[in-house]
Amino acid sequence: MLPFWIALQFLSSLPVSLPGMPEPREMGRSLLCYPLVGLLFGLLLWLASLGLQGTAAPLQAALLLALWVLLSGALHLDGLADSADAWLGGFGDRERTLLIMKDPRSGPIAVVTLVVVLLLKFCALWVLVERGAGALLVLAPVVGRAAMLGLFLSTPYVRKGGLGQALAEHLPRREAGGVLLACAGLCLVLGGWQVVWPLLAALGVFCGLRRMMCQRLGGTTGDTAGALLELLELTVLVGLAV
Fold first, then answer.
1. What residues form DSSP beta bridges with 220?
2. Fewer Cβ atoms within 10 A, N terminus or C terminus of the chain?
C-alpha cells in the first residue's frame, strides 16, 4: 500500500502522511499507482455530480471543475503554465527552455493557456452534466495519470538528481505495461465503444506532445509531464462532449 500513499501524497492535496522518506524503489513503484489516484479523483467527481443533481448545469460544471482543481492542488496546472512560458520563451533552445521552467513567475502566455484550458474543461463538463453522463467523469482523471505513467515508461527524464529521475529509474517496466492495458480495459468497461474515439484522440495527443518534448529537450521534465496530464484530460473531456 505504501506506493499508493506515496502517489496520493504527491498527486493530490488530500491529507496524507508517510512514515518517513520513501526508498527510491518505492518511489518508482508509486508510478504504477498514478491511475489509481486518477480513479479516486474520478469517483469523487462522480459522487459530487450525483450530490449536485438538480443544480443548474453551468453551476454544477463550475463546482465540479473547482473540486477537480482542489483535489490536485493545481499541481499539474502549474506544470502547464511553466511549460507554456518555456515553450514560447525558449525560442527552440533547450537550455533556455529548461531555465524558464525553473522560474516560478508566470508570463502572459501561461495565463492565457490556463484560461483557455480551464474554459474548455468547464464547457465540456457543462455538456456532460446536461447529458447526465456522470460515470464518464471517471475517465479523464484516469487517462491523464495513466499518460504520466506511459510518459515515464517511454521517455528519458532530463533533469538529473530530481524526484523524476528516481521515479524513472526505479519504475517496474513490465508491471507498468500491464497497468496501462488495465486502464484501457477499465475505460472501455465504464464508457463502452463511445470512448474509443476520445481514447484514440488522447493517444494521438500523447504521441504528438512526447515528440515535441524529445525534439526540444531530449525527454521530459516534471513540468512537461504535468502539462501532458492536463492536455490529455482536456482531450478526453472534449472528445466525450462533442
1. 157
2. N
Distance CA 55, CA 60 (A): 6
Q: What span, in angstroms and rounded, lies between the C-alpha atoms of 68 and 41? A: 7
Eight-class DSSP state of 162? S
Quote the CA–CA distance of 203 and 118 in Å, as a whole number.
Answer: 21
What residue type is assigned to position 219 of the chain? Answer: G
Please state the φ and ψ torsions of residue 157, each to the nearest 5 degrees. -95, 125
Q: What are 157's strand-pairing partners?
A: 220
Give residue 155's Cα distance to chain centre.
Answer: 16
C-alpha cell at 208: 504528438
CA separation, residue 87 to residues 194, 212, 234 (Å): 34, 10, 19
What residues of the chain score a pLDDT lower than 70? Answer: 161-163
The 10s digit of each residue's pLDDT in 198-213 is 999 999 999 999 999 9
Q: Which is nearest to 75 in space by CA: 14, 139, 11?
A: 11
Radius of gyration of the chain (CA): 17
How is residue 22 written as a grid cell? 520513501
Length in residues, the chain: 242
**Look-up: residue for cell 508570463?**
107
In degrees and rounded to multiples of 5, residue 36 shows phi and psi of -65, -40
Predicted TM-score (pTM) of this structure: 0.94
